[in-house]
Each structure stands twice: as structure tokens, then as C-alpha cells.
Queue: 2 jobs
Job 1
Amino acid sequence: MSLLSYGKYLKLRELLACQELESAKVGRPAHDELLFIITHQTYELWFKQLLHEIEAVLAIMGADFVNERDVGRALHYLERVVAIQKVLLDQIDVLETMTPLDFLDFRNLLTPSSGFQSAQFRQLENKLGLRRTQRLRYNEAEYETSLDAADSASVAAAERAVSLFDVIEAWLVRTPFVRSSEFDFWREYRANVARMLDEDQATIEGRAQLSDMARRAQLEELARTRETFDSVFEPTKYEALRAAGQRRLSYPAFLAALMIMLYRDEPILQNPFRLLTALVEVDQNLSLWRYRHALMVHRMIGAKIGTGGSSGQEYLRRTVEAHRVFLDFFNLATFLIPRSLLPALPPELREQLGFRWHA
Ligand code: HEM
């Protein structure tokens, strides 16, 4: 048996034989088509790695009992996801060195293929937790109709399986300290929120330079803020927002996430806090990629329709807002109050949330 070599290990002969220019096949080789192919192929390789990392996070966080040690590992994998996403964003700069005119040298040869058919991208979205009901439709077709049978099956399986959103939500619901018997957090928090908003109201009312109209507008805005805060204290209000699609997390999961964000200085809550922050970053980077991709499409093809038949950049731009998964974690910031107003934790609970060293 021959010794392992660099090329054999990486299957470079096969890998480097995978770039077939459609333009060369019709006898008009286009210089930039190689860049176009390699860019897409490297994306697909990174997508494979992202799926691998997310599978690992799903396995850890989807367990019935999640050990604190394992949260650190899940976090590590998520931080890798974030690092890879940054590379994915940067790759757009490389592809943008191709000009729209250069792209026209081979674009027509690509029809009807499209990034819309990237099964790994769809799996990624599904594994993160993008729901079918959120997806924008184009040409009145479901998103998987453009996939072939094998891809369609793997994408459907990813859609049926529990998602990262699901497992994080279930883990949050199990957070133990949210309803500690000796600590009536929510009553104190509510009183402090009321104090904070009353102070805001007094400031608006006392601002002499405001016109009556501007004052009325600011007070109305403040009343809306009070309403929003009420949804934290009153489950029925929260559920109404959820039914209207303005919240996704269940009420207990939302409360746990808020507690984690508020008391994240407690050592035990550091990793949960960083995990929720990593999910915000994953969602943010995906949104940034969607937007950068939409802008690139705009500058490459203007207002033309896509090779996959969509309205092109207009459809892509709308996905930036519509296809977000961890929006609830962004919205938690609305309910944060300054540390100085945070109800003090009872000493016993504080001790439980700290690190203890038993000699
Ligand atoms: C010149 C560069 C590119 C152009 C002009 C372009 C164009 C488009 C267009 C027009 C669509 C909408 C579907 C359609 O009608 O075809 C689309 C979707 C998509 N493209 Fe690209 N694309 C480019 C580069 C890339 C790259 C490098 C990737 C990396 C994998 C990519 C991945 C995707 C994905 C995943 C979708 C589906 C997005 C969604 O439905 O949310 N595209 N692209």
C-alpha cells in the first residue's frame, strides 16, 4: 500500500477536476467563470462545515439534561460558526472583483440553475429553525420545488428534525432559578421598571423646550413602551403578541432568557449569556450575508430576474428581514434595565450562581 500523501489525503486530483467551465464547453471560455465556480464551491464546503458544527450543537443542547461543561463546548462550536460566517461575508468581496460585463460572458449559460437550489443552504436554514410559514414564496412555489429528489429529501428531513431554535427554547424552559421560592424577582423588577418609566415621563413633562405636539408624541411613545413591558408581566399579553407573530419564544423560555441577560455577571450565567449572544451573532451574520448577497446581485444583474426565475435582488432583499430566526434574542434588549435598578439576589441564590471550590 502506498504511503499517504498530501494530495491523496485531500483528494486533490478529484477536487481540482471539479471546475468545468460552461463557457469553455461552447468554445468561448470566459476568464471569470473559474472564479465564479470556485467561489460557489468554497461556499458549499463551508456550508458543509457549518452543518457539522450545528449538528454537534444540536446533539449537545438537545439532550434531556445539559451539563454545564457541555454548554461550553456548544458555545465553542457556535463561535466557530460565527468565525466561518465572517469568511463567507468576506468572500463576497472576492467575487465582486468580477464586473457585471464579465459576468455576462457566461451568465446565460447557467439558466435555470441558481443558488436557490443549494440544498445545504436550505438545510442550514432549517437546522437553525427557519419555519416554512416565514419563507417568502416566489413564482407561487414552495421553496423545495426547485430541488431534485435527493436534495429535496435531505432538506425535508432537516425541516422535520428539531431545530437549534427548538432545543435552545426547551433548554431555557428548564432554567432552574427563574422561579426561586425565596426571590420574587418579577415583582421587584416590575416596580423598578415602573420607577424608570415614571422618571422618563417626568422628564418629558418637564422639558420646557418641547412643543405640545412633540410632548404628546413622546408621551404616546412612552405609553407604548409601558404596554410592551406589560407583556413581560402578563402572560396573556405575551401570548397575544405571540399569536400575532411578534414573539416566537414560549413565555417561560422568554423569562429565562431575560433573567440570563440581566444577571449575566453571575458566573454560572456567563456561558448561557454568551450562548444567547452567539445566536444573535449567527442570526446577524446570516442577515448580513443575505443583504450583501442581495447588493451583489443588484450590482451584477441590476433589475433583471434571477437565473432561477425570482425577481432577483428584490426577493433577496426581502428575505433579510423575513428569514430571521433568533429575533426574540435581539428584542430582549428592550427589557434590560440598568444594573443599578436590578433587584439584588438573595445571598443563598447568589452563592448558587457563583463558582465554588471545595478543597
Ligand atoms: C454573481 C454572483 C451571484 C449572482 C448574480 C446571484 C444571483 C442570485 C439570485 C438572482 C438569486 C435568487 C434566486 C434566482 O432567481 O436565481 C440567488 C439566490 C441565492 N444565491 Fe446567489 N448569486 C450570486 C452568487 C452567489 C454565491 C457566491 C452564493 C454562495 C453559495 C449564492 C448563493 C445563493 C443562495 C443560497 C440563494 C438562495 C437565497 C434565498 O432563497 O434566500 N449566490 N442568487
Job 2
Amino acid sequence: MKISTFFIRVFSRNSWAKIFLVAFCGVFIACSPSIENSASNTTTTRQDQKEIQTLRAAMSKVEPFFKPMGKPEAYDWLGSYNERGQTFDEYLESIPTLPTIERKTIYVLPIGKFTPQQRKIIDITAGYLEAFYDLQVRTMRSQPIKRPLNAKDQRLLKYSKAPQIRTGYLMDEVLKPQLPNDAAALIAFTSDDLYPDETMFFVFGQASLEDRVGVWSLARLDDNAGYDKFLLRTLKIAAHETGHMFSMRHCTKYECVMSGTNQLAETDRRPIDACPECMAKVCWLSEITPVARYKRLAEFCRSNGLFKEAGDFTRKAAAVSNS
Ligand SMILES: [Zn+2]
Ligand SMILES: [Zn+2]
């Protein structure tokens, strides 16, 4: 299978990293934030330490809900890429990019034409991001793609002749000029197929945290697999990519929504939730307690017909209720 590519550039006050991401994304190739840099530890307050202890207690309570990462299957992400993962402690030490008082809203922008089913899935995904990260999510009014596009911003795929749009055009010329000041991120969804440059067959999406914009395509997620699978794939990819925008690296400890995936079959095997280590990172960046987060996710899933997932979140909320 042809592998697609993501590029994400990460910038924060204290560090910046250029991340080269393949398929749904994920290999660090240059100057990622130093794991060894533990300067932030010296500045954690007593309140921080208490919160960290609470999160560690919750982590052990939800561990039974997750499968440890097994040996990779053929064409799986970890069969192709040797990643060391990132624990909660390593995340704290990495001085992650976090939402700020001024920038704590995730904006979702639908671009182009959508079927009623795709539109419904975007709306549900926006709600899931809100529950998952406990950040306000605003869905902007959908916008058409202004055509005709310049030749450098579009192409026909070599064999199928399917039209594609260059991600750099959408990010630089469509998203950046309308980035709200209070945006933690501006995430666009499109039904058009995407490519980053002439060297690549396609990409699922591309993001720049330095500029706080990203675009993801639904084109390859909807392979006639049915509504439920299409929805779950979109929820997983949105939660995963947004995690990267808050400096979360790929997870290798558990089967986790933050684990790298090389193919849709691998995505389908992953849960829609973050493992104990990654749950602690999300709660840390969102400043929400695990029990409040799980209850919120359970309610969200119940109200959107995801009853199995709602049950799982309810059981996790019960497990951490005393931590
Ligand atoms: Zn990734
Ligand atoms: Zn994880």
C-alpha cells in the first residue's frame, strides 16, 4: 500500500519541533522537544503535584480497560516504525503546548460539499472533540472551495484521474487568513481528496501547530464500510490529530487512540479513547478530572447512539470515582 504523509510543525514558547508524519501520522525526524529537559519539574506547584498524584491514581484504576500493545500485525505502524512512545511523566517533562486563557477554543470549519451523512459526522466529531478535550468547540459556517483553483493547487490522481487539492493551499490561503485570535486550533474537514506535493500519492491530512491550522479529508475514510465505522474512524482521527496539536506523541504502551496507524484496518482496531497514560495527559492539558471527563464522554456517546462506548466510559467513570 502506498503510504501517505502528514507534516506537523510544533511550536511553543520553550521548544519547537518539526514532525514528519506518515499515514495517519507520526514519526519524529528532527529536533523534537527534549525528553531529557526536566526544567519544568522545578516549577511545578504543590497544586500541580497534587493533581499529578490524583491522575496517577486514576491511571492505575482504568488500566484494566485497555489492551497492552501487542506484536504488530503485517503493515501495522509499529512494524514499520520503531517508536518509543511517551509516558505521562515524559509528556510533563517535554514542556507541552497547552491551551491558554487566550486560546482555548477549537474551531471546526467544513470546507467544500458534503453529503448529509458526512455533514452529520462532522457535527458529531466536533461534539466529541469538545467532550474529549473539555475545550469549547465552535463549528464555523461551511465554506465552498473557490474555483477555479490555480494549477499548482490541484491535480488529477495519476491512475484514477480523481481530483485532489493541495493541502498547502488550504492551510496557507484559506485557513490562516481567517484564524480566530482565540483559537487553540482551526481544524478544517473536507470531502475532497488531498495531496501535500508531487512526491506523494495522497494524504489524509496535514497540520501546522505553529500556525494552529490543519485540514483533514473524509474522502478515504468512507470506503463503503458503513455509517458506524465511518463515524468511529473520524472520531478517532480527530481526537488523535488534536492530541498531536497539544504535543502528545504516539502511544506504544497500549492499544490507544494516540497509537500510530498505518492503514484503516489498524485504525478500526483502536479504541476511541485514550489509554491511562494518554488520559492523564488529556486531563492535565484540559484541567479536568478523570471522573468528570469520563461522565461527559459517556453522556456524549449515549446521546449519539454510541451505546457500547457509552457503557465503557460509564464503567471507567465508576472506576475512578474515588480518585
Ligand atoms: Zn499520529
Ligand atoms: Zn495511549
